[in-house]
Protein backbone atom coordinates (compact mmCIF):
# COMPACT_ATOMS: atom_id res chain seq x y z
CA UNK A 1 0.00 0.00 0.00
CA UNK A 2 2.75 2.41 0.99
CA UNK A 3 4.71 1.36 -2.07
CA UNK A 4 1.67 2.06 -4.23
CA UNK A 5 1.34 5.56 -2.78
CA UNK A 6 5.04 6.16 -3.33
CA UNK A 7 4.73 5.14 -6.96
CA UNK A 8 1.68 7.35 -7.39
CA UNK A 9 3.68 10.39 -6.32
CA UNK A 10 6.24 9.88 -9.05
CA UNK A 11 5.25 11.56 -12.28
CA UNK A 12 7.13 10.97 -15.54
CA UNK A 13 8.91 14.09 -16.73
CA UNK A 14 11.28 15.03 -19.51
CA UNK A 15 13.33 17.01 -16.98
CA UNK A 16 14.56 14.77 -14.15
CA UNK A 17 15.02 15.94 -10.59
CA UNK A 18 11.87 17.48 -9.18
CA UNK A 19 13.67 18.82 -6.13
CA UNK A 20 16.39 20.50 -8.19
CA UNK A 21 13.89 22.01 -10.64
CA UNK A 22 11.67 23.28 -7.83
CA UNK A 23 14.65 24.74 -5.98
CA UNK A 24 15.83 26.53 -9.11
CA UNK A 25 12.31 27.86 -9.73
CA UNK A 26 11.92 29.22 -6.22
CA UNK A 27 15.40 30.74 -6.25
CA UNK A 28 14.88 32.41 -9.61
CA UNK A 29 11.46 33.80 -8.68
CA UNK A 30 12.82 35.04 -5.36
CA UNK A 31 15.73 36.89 -6.96
CA UNK A 32 13.76 38.35 -9.84
CA UNK A 33 10.32 38.97 -8.32
CA UNK A 34 9.89 38.33 -4.60
CA UNK A 35 12.97 40.07 -3.19
CA UNK A 36 12.46 43.33 -5.16
CA UNK A 37 8.79 43.38 -4.18
CA UNK A 38 9.68 42.66 -0.57
CA UNK A 39 12.18 45.54 -0.61
CA UNK A 40 9.47 47.82 -1.98
CA UNK A 41 7.01 46.81 0.73
CA UNK A 42 9.69 47.09 3.42
CA UNK A 43 10.54 50.63 2.34
CA UNK A 44 6.85 51.49 2.33
CA UNK A 45 6.33 49.94 5.78
CA UNK A 46 8.98 52.25 7.19
CA UNK A 47 6.58 55.15 6.57
CA UNK A 48 3.99 53.73 8.92
CA UNK A 49 0.35 53.38 7.98
CA UNK A 50 -0.48 57.03 8.63
CA UNK A 51 2.39 58.24 6.46
CA UNK A 52 1.54 55.81 3.70
CA UNK A 53 -2.15 56.73 3.80
CA UNK A 54 -1.37 60.45 3.71
CA UNK A 55 0.73 60.01 0.56
CA UNK A 56 -1.65 57.76 -1.38
CA UNK A 57 -4.73 59.83 -0.51
CA UNK A 58 -3.17 63.11 -1.58
CA UNK A 59 -5.36 64.69 -4.30
CA UNK A 60 -2.64 64.56 -6.96
CA UNK A 61 -1.84 60.92 -6.20
CA UNK A 62 -5.49 59.88 -6.30
CA UNK A 63 -5.97 61.71 -9.60
CA UNK A 64 -2.92 59.98 -11.13
CA UNK A 65 -4.04 56.55 -9.89
CA UNK A 66 -7.55 57.15 -11.23
CA UNK A 67 -6.21 58.14 -14.65
CA UNK A 68 -3.91 55.11 -14.83
CA UNK A 69 -6.36 52.45 -13.67
CA UNK A 70 -9.58 53.73 -15.24
CA UNK A 71 -8.06 54.29 -18.68
CA UNK A 72 -6.11 51.02 -18.45
CA UNK A 73 -9.35 49.16 -17.69
CA UNK A 74 -11.14 50.83 -20.60
CA UNK A 75 -8.23 50.17 -22.98
CA UNK A 76 -8.03 46.51 -21.95
CA UNK A 77 -11.80 46.15 -22.46
CA UNK A 78 -11.53 47.63 -25.95
CA UNK A 79 -8.65 45.30 -26.72
CA UNK A 80 -10.73 42.31 -25.64
CA UNK A 81 -13.43 43.13 -28.21
CA UNK A 82 -11.17 43.95 -31.13
CA UNK A 83 -8.50 41.43 -30.15
CA UNK A 84 -11.01 38.58 -30.37
CA UNK A 85 -12.20 39.88 -33.75
CA UNK A 86 -8.63 40.10 -35.06
CA UNK A 87 -7.83 36.60 -33.79
CA UNK A 88 -11.03 35.28 -35.42
CA UNK A 89 -10.14 36.85 -38.79
CA UNK A 90 -6.57 35.54 -38.69
CA UNK A 91 -7.67 31.99 -37.83
CA UNK A 92 -10.92 31.51 -39.73
CA UNK A 93 -10.26 33.33 -43.02
CA UNK A 94 -7.68 32.95 -45.76
CA UNK A 95 -6.89 36.10 -47.75
CA UNK A 96 -3.88 37.74 -49.42
CA UNK A 97 -1.60 39.39 -46.88
CA UNK A 98 -2.90 37.38 -43.93
CA UNK A 99 0.59 36.39 -42.78
CA UNK A 100 1.76 39.98 -43.09
CA UNK A 101 -1.20 41.16 -41.03
CA UNK A 102 -0.43 38.45 -38.48
CA UNK A 103 3.13 39.77 -38.22
CA UNK A 104 1.89 43.35 -37.77
CA UNK A 105 0.09 42.29 -34.58
CA UNK A 106 3.46 41.79 -32.88
CA UNK A 107 4.83 45.22 -33.78
CA UNK A 108 3.90 46.80 -30.41
CA UNK A 109 6.04 44.08 -28.78
CA UNK A 110 9.12 44.92 -30.83
CA UNK A 111 8.69 48.68 -31.15
CA UNK A 112 10.40 50.73 -28.40
CA UNK A 113 7.72 52.40 -26.33
CA UNK A 114 9.23 55.87 -26.78
CA UNK A 115 9.15 55.44 -30.56
CA UNK A 116 5.52 54.32 -30.33
CA UNK A 117 4.65 57.38 -28.26
CA UNK A 118 6.36 59.76 -30.67
CA UNK A 119 4.67 58.12 -33.67
CA UNK A 120 1.22 58.24 -32.09
CA UNK A 121 1.72 61.87 -31.09
CA UNK A 122 2.75 62.80 -34.62
CA UNK A 123 -0.33 61.09 -36.03
CA UNK A 124 -2.90 62.42 -33.55
CA UNK A 125 -1.53 65.94 -33.01
CA UNK A 126 -3.62 68.77 -34.46
CA UNK A 127 -1.34 68.94 -37.51
CA UNK A 128 -1.00 65.15 -37.79
CA UNK A 129 -2.61 62.85 -40.35
CA UNK A 130 -5.55 61.86 -38.18
CA UNK A 131 -5.49 64.84 -35.83
CA UNK A 132 -6.01 67.26 -38.73
CA UNK A 133 -9.11 65.32 -39.80
CA UNK A 134 -10.57 65.30 -36.28
CA UNK A 135 -9.73 68.88 -35.35
CA UNK A 136 -12.55 70.53 -37.39
CA UNK A 137 -15.02 68.47 -35.34
CA UNK A 138 -13.48 69.70 -32.08
CA UNK A 139 -12.02 66.28 -31.28
CA UNK A 140 -8.59 66.34 -29.63
CA UNK A 141 -6.61 63.16 -29.06
CA UNK A 142 -3.02 64.15 -28.43
CA UNK A 143 -2.25 65.78 -25.07
CA UNK A 144 -5.54 64.63 -23.56
CA UNK A 145 -6.69 61.52 -21.65
CA UNK A 146 -7.95 60.21 -25.00
CA UNK A 147 -4.34 60.07 -26.13
CA UNK A 148 -3.49 57.87 -23.15
CA UNK A 149 -6.26 55.49 -24.17
CA UNK A 150 -4.99 55.32 -27.75
CA UNK A 151 -1.46 54.52 -26.58
CA UNK A 152 -2.66 51.83 -24.15
CA UNK A 153 -4.87 50.20 -26.78
CA UNK A 154 -1.90 50.16 -29.14
CA UNK A 155 0.48 48.43 -26.74
CA UNK A 156 -2.13 46.05 -25.28
CA UNK A 157 -3.75 44.57 -28.41
CA UNK A 158 -1.12 41.83 -29.02
CA UNK A 159 -1.65 40.38 -25.54
CA UNK A 160 -5.29 39.60 -26.29
CA UNK A 161 -4.73 38.40 -29.86
CA UNK A 162 -1.86 36.08 -28.99
CA UNK A 163 -3.70 34.65 -25.99
CA UNK A 164 -6.98 33.96 -27.78
CA UNK A 165 -5.49 32.90 -31.11
CA UNK A 166 -4.14 29.44 -30.16
CA UNK A 167 -7.33 28.54 -28.26
CA UNK A 168 -9.47 29.57 -31.20
CA UNK A 169 -7.20 27.63 -33.54
CA UNK A 170 -7.74 24.45 -31.51
CA UNK A 171 -11.49 24.96 -31.29
CA UNK A 172 -13.16 22.16 -33.24
CA UNK A 173 -15.50 23.31 -35.96
CA UNK A 174 -17.49 20.12 -35.51
CA UNK A 175 -18.85 21.60 -32.30
CA UNK A 176 -20.18 24.61 -34.19
CA UNK A 177 -21.68 22.32 -36.82
CA UNK A 178 -23.30 20.18 -34.12
CA UNK A 179 -24.82 23.27 -32.50
CA UNK A 180 -26.17 24.42 -35.87
CA UNK A 181 -27.61 20.98 -36.60
CA UNK A 182 -29.44 21.10 -33.27
CA UNK A 183 -31.13 24.33 -34.32
CA UNK A 184 -28.88 26.91 -32.68
CA UNK A 185 -28.65 30.27 -34.42
CA UNK A 186 -25.31 31.92 -35.12
CA UNK A 187 -25.71 34.17 -32.11
CA UNK A 188 -26.54 31.22 -29.84
CA UNK A 189 -23.56 29.29 -31.17
CA UNK A 190 -21.23 32.20 -30.48
CA UNK A 191 -22.52 33.16 -27.04
CA UNK A 192 -23.48 29.74 -25.66
CA UNK A 193 -20.95 27.42 -27.27
CA UNK A 194 -17.84 29.30 -28.35
CA UNK A 195 -17.64 32.18 -25.88
CA UNK A 196 -17.66 29.99 -22.73
CA UNK A 197 -14.79 27.93 -24.18
CA UNK A 198 -12.83 31.06 -25.08
CA UNK A 199 -13.58 32.94 -21.86
CA UNK A 200 -10.52 31.76 -19.84
CA UNK A 201 -8.22 32.85 -22.68
CA UNK A 202 -10.09 36.14 -23.06
CA UNK A 203 -9.76 36.85 -19.34
CA UNK A 204 -6.06 36.02 -19.47
CA UNK A 205 -5.59 38.40 -22.39
CA UNK A 206 -7.51 41.09 -20.53
CA UNK A 207 -5.37 40.63 -17.42
CA UNK A 208 -2.13 40.82 -19.42
CA UNK A 209 -3.26 43.89 -21.38
CA UNK A 210 -4.47 45.59 -18.20
CA UNK A 211 -1.26 44.85 -16.28
CA UNK A 212 0.87 46.14 -19.15
CA UNK A 213 -1.26 49.27 -19.49
CA UNK A 214 -1.12 50.15 -15.79
CA UNK A 215 2.67 50.18 -15.78
CA UNK A 216 3.16 51.72 -19.22
CA UNK A 217 5.30 54.86 -19.28
CA UNK A 218 7.29 55.41 -22.47
CA UNK A 219 4.49 55.46 -25.03
CA UNK A 220 2.15 57.48 -22.82
CA UNK A 221 4.18 60.48 -21.68
CA UNK A 222 4.63 61.79 -25.22
CA UNK A 223 0.94 61.81 -26.10
CA UNK A 224 -0.65 62.40 -22.69
CA UNK A 225 0.19 66.05 -22.10
CA UNK A 226 1.08 65.10 -18.50
CA UNK A 227 -1.17 67.71 -16.92
CA UNK A 228 -1.68 67.11 -13.17
CA UNK A 229 -5.27 66.14 -12.26
CA UNK A 230 -6.07 65.71 -15.98
CA UNK A 231 -3.66 63.48 -17.90
CA UNK A 232 -0.88 62.65 -15.46
CA UNK A 233 -0.37 58.90 -15.00
CA UNK A 234 0.83 57.26 -11.80
CA UNK A 235 4.14 55.94 -13.28
CA UNK A 236 5.03 59.51 -14.30
CA UNK A 237 4.25 60.76 -10.80
CA UNK A 238 6.59 58.10 -9.41
CA UNK A 239 9.37 59.28 -11.74
CA UNK A 240 8.75 62.89 -10.69
CA UNK A 241 9.06 61.95 -7.02
CA UNK A 242 12.28 60.04 -7.73
CA UNK A 243 13.75 63.05 -9.54
CA UNK A 244 12.89 65.09 -6.46
CA UNK A 245 14.75 62.45 -4.37
CA UNK A 246 11.51 61.85 -2.52
CA UNK A 247 11.92 58.09 -2.38
CA UNK A 248 9.33 57.62 0.35
CA UNK A 249 6.50 59.04 -1.75
CA UNK A 250 7.70 57.17 -4.84
CA UNK A 251 7.68 53.81 -3.07
CA UNK A 252 4.31 54.54 -1.44
CA UNK A 253 2.69 55.29 -4.81
CA UNK A 254 4.35 52.21 -6.33
CA UNK A 255 3.10 50.05 -3.47
CA UNK A 256 -0.44 51.40 -3.91
CA UNK A 257 -0.29 50.59 -7.63
CA UNK A 258 1.00 47.11 -6.85
CA UNK A 259 -1.78 46.36 -4.39
CA UNK A 260 -4.55 47.64 -6.67
CA UNK A 261 -3.18 45.78 -9.71
CA UNK A 262 -2.72 42.57 -7.70
CA UNK A 263 -6.31 42.79 -6.43
CA UNK A 264 -7.71 43.22 -9.94
CA UNK A 265 -5.61 40.37 -11.37
CA UNK A 266 -6.49 38.12 -8.42
CA UNK A 267 -10.21 38.73 -9.02
CA UNK A 268 -9.74 37.92 -12.71
CA UNK A 269 -8.01 34.66 -11.75
CA UNK A 270 -10.95 33.79 -9.49
CA UNK A 271 -13.36 34.38 -12.36
CA UNK A 272 -11.18 32.20 -14.60
CA UNK A 273 -11.23 29.38 -12.07
CA UNK A 274 -15.01 29.68 -11.75
CA UNK A 275 -15.36 29.60 -15.54
CA UNK A 276 -13.23 26.44 -15.80
CA UNK A 277 -15.23 24.66 -13.13
CA UNK A 278 -18.55 25.69 -14.65
CA UNK A 279 -17.77 24.69 -18.20
CA UNK A 280 -15.46 21.77 -17.52
CA UNK A 281 -16.38 18.68 -19.58
Q: What shape does the CA trace take?
A: globular
Helix content bin: over 70%
What is the arithmetic mean of pLDDT? Answer: 85
Number of helices: 14
CATH class: Mainly Alpha
CATH architecture: Orthogonal Bundle
How far apart are the first and last residues' alpha carbons, in Å? 32 Å
Protein structure class: mainly alpha
Radius of gyration over C-alpha positions, nearest whole angstrom: 23 Å
DSSP strand count: 0
Main pleated sheet? none
Low-confidence stretches: 1-9
What count of structural domains?
1
- The CATH topology is what? MetI-like fold
Identify the quaternary structure here: single chain
Specify the CATH homologous superfamily: MetI-like
The string of secondary-structure elements, in order, is HHHHHHHHHHHHHH
Percent of residues in β-strands? under 5%
Top keywords for this entry?
281 residues, mainly alpha, single chain, 14 helices, 0% strand, globular, MetI-like fold
